[in-house]
Amino acid sequence: MSEDKKEKAYRPLQTQGLLQQLAFRHMLEAHAASEDGKLAWVTSGFPVEIPRSMEIGISYPEQYGAVVAVEKMGPLLCSYGEELGYSQELCSYALANIGSVEHPDESPGGGLPEPQALLACNNICGTVLKWYDAVSQMTGAPVFLVDTPALDSEQQPHHLKYVVHGLQKLVDFLATTFNTSLEEERLNQVAEFSTKAVDLWTKALKACKNKPSPLNSPDRFLAMTPVVSMRGTDYCLEYYESLLQEVKERVKQGLGAITKEEKVRLLWDNIPPFYQFRFFNSLAKRGIVFPADSYTHAWSGRIEGDDLFQGVATLYSNVYLNKGLDAKVDKMCQLIKEYELDGFVLFSDRSCKRYSLGQLVSKEIVSEKTGVPGVVIEGDHVDSRLFNEAQIQTRVDALLEMLI
Amino acid sequence: MGYEEAMEQTNEELKQLIAAGKRVIGYIYPHTPIEIILGHGLTPSLVGTSPGVTGAFEASLQTFTCAFARNLFSQRVNDQLPAITGLIFPGNTCDSLQNVADVWRIRFPDDNVFRLTYPVADQSEAAVQYFAEEIRILSKTLEETFGQPFNENEYDAAVTLVSAFREAAQFLYASRVLDPQSITYANLAGLVRGFLLSPELGSLSEIEAIVHNVQQHLMEKGLLQDAKKLQKAILKGNLEKVEISSDLTSLRIAVAGGMVEPQAIANLLDSIPEVTDDVMVIDILSFGFRTVFTPQPSPPGNCFEQTARSILNAPTEPTQEGLPRRVEFLKSMLTKLSIDGLIICEQSFCDPDQFEAPSLEAAASEVNVPSVRLPLDPELSDRARLEVRIQSFLETLHST
Q1: Which of A89, A143, A354 is closest, CB to CB, to B349?
Q2: What angle is formed at CA A349 by the lines to CA A348 and CA A350, rounded to 5 degrees?
Q3: Is A223:A205 a contact under the CB 8 Å cutoff?
Q4: For the whole model, what pTM was predicted?
Q5: Disulfide engineering: B231 pairs with which of A319, A402, B174, B268, CB 3.0-4.6 Å?
Q6: What digits encode the pLDDT tens for the residues B133-177?
Q7: Contact A319, A45 (CB under 8 A)
Q8: Shortest Cα distance, chain A CAs vs residue B70, angstroms
Q9: In what order do the strands lie in the sheet with B280-284?
Q10: Closest by Cα among A289, A316, A276 to A191
């Protein structure tokens, strides 16, 4: 085998092993909770600190969707969702999940464990309510929606009051459904774990301002798993302590995420095509790295203030996807500037209207404001049928020609 | 009149209003507080999709944007939208309209674009208070933008006007259930559209005149009191005590879906040979049934609270929490109103429609009512396929 073939384009993280252990642990805990009748499926932007502090087990269908995609089972499970009558035009996270509920035996790991409740928060998109309604009809688990209406500007008092009311109703719902109660001390503890983990994660993200960047996008897409799906646990916090340590060590030694010399630093926008990380690796071989992306940066922010409910309501109402196009543009410009990026790639994800619609306009505005070029490529984050590798390569090459 | 001609006529009427000096505020989502807008001395007008529009969205929106939003955007790019003074987008209803409003503001910076954000969770009074404040903020913004303050007397007059329209339209809906020949569906859809296009005494008088005739017609048939009772039952959302005569020999179908133009459905039916819109007994569409059967604003509370409560007590949309209730209501409609078949409309790339459709199909199946799904778009692309699908469905029902 030639030396070129043997050399990997990326440097694997040592904490990868720990991440896999945590994922396995999380899965076991979820199965146990389901068997005890104490499992809730939640959306990725849900204020998970509340159910977690009420000792309810948690599973994340979106994170499972990423696993489905990585296992290249997106087309199969989505097709099962379509067989049940759901349009192919719908979100592939939802389709794959619906397909998986119908055919757990053909799903990775035998599917997600059966839920006793479905907890949705529409701060990431409006689809989640409809998706969970569909799953509710299949499983019998009731849906609870924390409604966080999208914000045009600063959150107003009446909005905060409405969301806090929703959180109070959530506590009542969980207490009734799971015969449990909320202890303030436990909520404080979970919130502290969550905030600390997010702080550490944010520091790891910011370390990518260094050259070379210690993390590439695929590293972050995997490393974000605990902050999304294990937020509020002590072991999530422990993971990010380890990750940050490794990242700091890389920075100290001048080791980048990619083995080649960095030639071009790019921003990635949107959820990635989880089944096609080789896209990033092939670019890495050419010295192209993604030190920042809008998706992993969305998990930031702290629960603050003396009133935890207000703190939770504020944090979860103000997430990246719950704000308008202006906020998205500002964030991208900020990342491009702070991370000294040469260009940006907007992944127009057919499944995700909330994230994708507006990209054609934001491409122009971000280029104008930052002076760097960008490109729009099309695909889907779970359904590989919608990923045209050749077309994408052509567009990315056109961008790179401007930069190299 | 074909669908395209009907929509063109609608736009012409709107242009005449504007030419007459009316300041017209367009709105997109059916449950917009038009009483409040009228209270500012402005004219609210439901902006409709145009079947004849040439696609012009590609520079700004991807093709997976909801077909409804794409159509409106294309109209704007092509300067085909009437010269409305402002446009109200809904917030928190669906991701397409949420994002398209932002794109619209950027692409057309001189347009007055407003957003009214809706609660979608079933939080009762907390939702009312939240929404009341959103409506108040909209009212304040309208005042600041147009220099026309809110006037309580004009608001009260608007409530009377809109309530009278709803009362009249509800009665016509109920009368068609008992006797579909009392007024054609196309006529009813046109009357509703006409009022929502231009909510003023002229359009109210027109519908009230027709109500008078229909009342006479039903009285002669001994159905008038039944129609009034049915109207009340539907408004309450409780059909338990409804009994439709078993003397029905004609086919009876219902249409369900979201933001599909009732006139488009009427026109499709009229285009099918040997089919009249008598078969269409009732729709459960956003711009039809759900708008018409909205309860009127009433105490307690100030005008913003009253309007919020009125809107939030309307039949829920696919964009809102409440799928189990919608499904149960559909089943009761299908059984109690003796419906033989259900057409389920799905707007292309509309998440609420497309997620809800399988549930509506299953609901119909549970009560042994055959159904057919109709994927469509505002341009009625592939119209022939749609007509054939409906025709085949009706023929299947006839033969069973």
Answers
A1: A89
A2: 110
A3: no
A4: 0.96
A5: B174
A6: 999 999 999 999 999 999 999 999 999 999 999 999 999 999 999
A7: yes
A8: 11
A9: B280-284, B253-256, B341-347, B371-376
A10: A316
